[in-house]
Amino acid sequence: xxxxxxxxxxxKSYGDVKILKDINVAIExxxxxxxxxxxxxxxxxxxNCIAGLEPITGGAITxxxxxxxxxxPKDRNIAMVFQSYALxxxxxxxKNITFGMKVRGVDQATQDAKLKEVAxxxxxxxxLNRRPGQLSGGQRQRVAMGRALVRDPAxxxxxxxxxxxxxxxxxxxxxxxxxxxxxxxxxxVYVTHDQIEAMTLATKIVVMKGGVIQQIGxxxxxxxxxxxxxxxxxxxxxxxxxxxxKARKNGAGTQIEIARKGGEPLVLVDPTAPDLPAxxxxxLRPENIAQADVRTGESYxxxxxxxxxxxxxxxDTYVMSNLGGKPVTARMHAETTAKAGQPLSFxxxxxxxxYFAPEDGRRLN
Length: 365
Ligand SMILES: Nc1ncnc2c1ncn2[C@@H]1O[C@H](COP(=O)(O)OP(=O)(O)OP(=O)(O)O)[C@@H](O)[C@H]1O
Known about the structure:
Elements: E1 5-14, E2 17-27, E3 32-36, H1 43-51, E4 58-63, E5 66-67, E6 78-82, H2 93-103, H3 108-122, H4 137-149, E7 155-159, H5 167-184, E8 188-192, H6 195-201, E9 204-209, E10 212-217, H7 219-224, H8 229-234, E11 241-250, E12 253-258, E13 266-270, E14 279-284, E15 289-291, E16 300-313, E17 316-323, E18 326-333, E19 343-349, E20 354-356
Parallel strand pairs: 3-8, 3-9, 6-7, 7-8
Antiparallel strand pairs: 1-2, 1-4, 4-5, 9-10, 11-12, 11-14, 12-13, 14-20, 15-19, 16-17, 16-19, 17-18
Helix pairs in contact: 2-3, 2-4, 3-4
The protein binds adenosine-5'-triphosphate.
Adenosine-5'-triphosphate is lined by residues 14, 19, 37, 39-45, 193.
């Protein structure tokens, strides 16, 4: 399938300041691409370049096979939903949704049919005669989406559409956007700084930092095989444990030695590790460290560690121990017997480890 959006060697500068550096990404029709990264990493700028709201400094953007360099925003066959909704306060919901069609000279019957279809899709039929000021944040968000939907665009662009909503509504709207994507099968590009939103919505994630793409992949690829320390640390909550360790090859595999507070170093043996340098950072997600007397799989190795802190969190309990000079978090069952100040037998899932180079953070396995 030809990509619906193809970005090649894109550069964007403001004056002498390079904001986006050699961006390359393509998406297939029906993809939900999420651009995620910390504040200032350039994700909104990239979205604005796709929309044509910002001129690009170098490279090319193609939408549905057509080069966009000379195409104005209104002719790009895209629809954009912003965090500010940008609704017309004096117009009814119905008028807000149909206004764009009216401006484009779409006939009345088509306008009415489209409005009806979209209002049903978004379940906002009872709101059509209200003004935006008489709506809740979530309802306004739906109207803003309705305005985008009536355009039938080749590509939907979303710029942090949920950031003005409270936590509960955010989660509800997130599910609605996901459902909408599933129903429409539309192609979407979505900007967020929220890694959970990225994981739950995306078919494909682009993780950015400092205007440079750090990794492109499915949510599972990004989560299970982060390309570097930045991605490992940024994606996942609580974050992946990143533990300084020494690696040494021996007969059975590679010995991974980790400093342990109040005792001899902890030694794990990884039978399948690649050739590693002497100093590595071992990455292990909290859910890949268990309490040893709970049933664990073959790839687990057991070691006693001193428990520093126990944090019950409802369904799970987080248990912290100091390893490699850092607090390491294990996600355990709520019934864990872990007690602060006492040793506990931890089980580490060596089948799930990531190794990173301390000097530049790149993934080693
Ligand atoms: N018009 C502009 N002129 C100069 N610099 C700009 C302009 N717009 C954005 N920038 C800079 O470009 C960088 C990227 O900004 P951008 O808004 O794309 O980041 P972002 O990742 O979307 O962050 P946020 O989540 O905070 O919106 C920032 O350092 C910002 O200060």
